[in-house]
Amino acid sequence: MCGIVGYIGKNQDIRMGIEALRRLEYRGYDSAGAAWYNSDKKDIFLVKKAGRIDNLEKAIQESNLVSSGNPFILHTRWATHGGVDDINAHPHSDCKNEIFLVHNGIIENYQELKEKLIKEGHKFCSQCDTEVLSHLIEKYFQGNLEEAVRKALKEVRGTYGLAVISKKDPGKLVAARLSSPLLLGINQDEILVASDPSAVITHTRQVINLDDNEIAVLKPENFFILKEKPVIQIEWTAEEAQKGDYPHFMLKEIMEEPEAIENAIRGRLIPEEGQVKLGGLSSVEKKLREINRLLLVACGTASYAARTGEYMLEEYAGIPTEIDIGSEFRYRKPIVDKKTAAIFISQSGETADTLAALREMKEKGTMALGITNAVGSTQSRETDAGVYTRSGPEIAVASTKAFIGQLITLALLTVYFGRQRDMALVMGQRIVSELAKLPELARKVLKQAPEIEKIAKKYKDCKNFWFIGRKYNYPMAMEGALKLKEISYLHAEGVASGELKHGALALIDENFPTIVISPSDSVYEKTISNIQEIKARKGPIIAIATEGNEEIKNLVDDVIYIPKTLEMLTPILSVIPLHLFAYYTAVALGKDIDKPRNLAKSVTVE
Ligand code: G6P
C-alpha cells in the first residue's frame, strides 16, 4: 500500500527512480512524486502530481529541473488522509523546504502533533498525516539527519516506512520502519531503499529487510544499521515480473496458474508414502503432532483460501479448524491453549490486519505458522515456521495464481497433518497422486479461455450476479464474486447454495444471472435443486460442471467444464474459469484490469 523508492549511488538521473517506482505502481496509484538532490545547485527539487506515474514523469520532463545528483526519493500513493491531489501527494517537506520525506503507513496521533507544531510556528500546506513527520524532523534537526529522525519518531504513534533526505545533510538517505515493509537493495556503488523487492530487482537481488524500530543510514558507498542483518537473495527475476506479450498482468498470472501448482508441489510429494515433505515445518514437526485445534487467519482473497482449507483440514486431517478474517480476529478474544496452532495466510506477508492477528497470537504464546508467497516478508520472519507458496511475483491487484498457490499449500498441509494423525496410507496416496495431476488438468481448463470470453461478453451488461457453491466450492463462490466486483465494478456476491432460499432468491429475475459451481461431487444433487429453484424464477445460469455431465446442459444457459478430480481439490480447478470470467468481463467493459479503482495490492494499513 503506497510504494517507496529511495536511491543513493552512482546514478544521477531521476528517471532511474521513476523506472523503479513504476514497478511499485500496483501498490497504490492515486498520485506520485519525487524529490532529488541537485549537486550543482546544492538544492532539492520536488515534483508531485495527482494521477498515475505517467503524469509525474511528464511533469518532471516539463519542469526543466535538471537532475544531476542524488539521493532521490519517490512515492506512489494510495490515499488515506487527505484527498487525491498534487498537494497531498508525497514527498512532503518542512517549512524551509530543506527536509523531504516519503512515508507509507498512518501517523495516528498526527492531529495532536500538528496542532502542537502549528502553535510552535510551523506552517502546514496539506491535509496528509505524513506532513507532521517532516515538521517534526525539522524541529529536531541540528545538522544530523538521522538524529533528527530518531527524535521525531519517538513522538509518533502509528505505522511507518520512511525515506528522508535533507539538503542540509546531503550525501545521505535515512530510512526507518515500524509495521510497514521497507528493505534495502544492496549493489556495488549504489543502495536502494524500497517498500517492495520489485522496485530493486533490476539493480540487485541482494536485499536486507529492515525490522520494526530500525533506522538505516544510507551513503553511496555503504549503509549503517545498528544490528548485523542477513542479506536475502530475491528468488525471482526481473523478467518474471514483466507482462511479456500479455495485455495485462492479470491474464498472464491466470495463465500461470498451472505453473503455480507445479511450483507449490515441486519436491514436496512423496507418492509411495502418501505423504508430503514440507521443509519449513521440520523445526516444529513434533509439536505439531500435539495440536488439536487450528485457527486460520487471512484477509481478502486469502481468507477464501482459508475457508477452503477449513473444509480440507476438518474432513481429511480431522482437526477442528476455525477461520476468521484478520481485521475481526485481532479484536476478538480468541480462546487458545497450548494445543492450538494459528496459521496465517497472506500472499504479500505484509497485510497489516493479518500481521496484527499474528502478533496477538504470539503474545498469547500460540504457535504461529505462515503460508506466504513473499520470502523474507514480515509474516515469514515473525511466524514460528511456515510454507512458501512459491507462486512467483504477482503484480495484478486482484490475486489469482497466488490464491491457487495458497489452496495447494493448504491441500499439502492437510496431507501433512492428516498423515500425522488418522489418515490412511491409501488416502494419503490418493490425494498426493491427484495433486500431481492438477497442473495438466488446470491447463485443460485454461484452453477454454475463448469460450469463457464469449460467455463474459454475453453477460457483461448485467448489473448483478450471484455466485453460488456448496462445501469446498462455497468459498470459491465468494472468490468468484470478489474477483468480478474488484475489477469490473459490477455487483456480485458469493452465497452458499443452501442459503439462496433464505433471501438471495428474492432478487432473481431474467436480468440477474447466477454462476453455479456444480462439480459432480457429494453435494451435486443438492446443487441441482438450487438450479431448478433459480430456473423456476427465470434467472439465467452459468454452470461450472464436471466433464461428461451432459445432463446439466438442459438445465442451464451456459456450461464451463472442469476435469474430474478429488472433491477436495475441485476448487483449484473451478476457480480458474471464475478468474477468467472476471477478467474477460472487465476487459469487455473497458476497465483498468491491473489497477482497479480505489484498491491496492498490499494493504499495509489497518
Ligand atoms: C488486498 C488485495 C487482495 C488480497 C488481500 C490480502 O485486498 O487486493 O488481492 O487478497 O489484500 O492480501 P495478502 O497479501 O495478505 O494475501
TrEMBL record:
* Quaternary organization: Homodimer.
- Know the name of this protein? Glutamine--fructose-6-phosphate aminotransferase [isomerizing]
Task: Pinpoint the Glutamine amidotransferase type-2 domain residues.
Answer: 2-221
Q: Which NCBIfam families match?
A: glmS, PRK00331.1
Q: For this protein, what is any one GO molecular function term? A: glutamine-fructose-6-phosphate transaminase (isomerizing) activity
> Where does this protein chiefly localize?
cytoplasm
In terms of Pfam families, this protein maps to: GATase_6 (PF13522), SIS (PF01380)
Signal peptide position in this chain?
none
Catalyzed reactions per annotation: D-fructose 6-phosphate + L-glutamine = D-glucosamine 6-phosphate + L-glutamate
Q: Where is the active site?
A: C2, K601
Q: Where does the chain cross the membrane?
A: none
Task: Identify the InterPro entries for this entry.
Answer: GATase_2_dom (IPR017932), GFAT (IPR005855), GFAT_N (IPR047084), GlmS/AgaS_SIS (IPR035466), GlmS/FrlB_SIS (IPR035490), Ntn_hydrolases_N (IPR029055), SIS_dom (IPR001347), SIS_dom_sf (IPR046348)
> Which GO cellular component terms are attached?
cytosol
UniProt-annotated location(s) = Cytoplasm
Enzyme Commission numbers on file: 2.6.1.16
Q: What class of enzyme is it?
A: transferase
Q: Enumerate the UniProt keywords alphabetically.
A: Aminotransferase, Cytoplasm, Glutamine amidotransferase, Repeat, Transferase
GO biological process, alphabetically ordered:
amino sugar biosynthetic process; carbohydrate metabolic process; fructose 6-phosphate metabolic process; protein N-linked glycosylation; UDP-N-acetylglucosamine metabolic process
**Residue ranges annotated for the SIS domain, each copy included:** 284-423, 455-596
The superkingdom listed in its UniProt entry is: Bacteria
Q: What is the lineage of its organism?
A: Bacteria, Candidatus Nealsoniibacteriota
* PROSITE patterns the record matches: GATASE_TYPE_2, SIS
**Family matches, as Gene3D superfamilies:** Glucose-6-phosphate isomerase like protein, domain 1, Glutamine Phosphoribosylpyrophosphate, subunit 1, domain 1
Main function: Catalyzes the first step in hexosamine metabolism, converting fructose-6P into glucosamine-6P using glutamine as a nitrogen source.
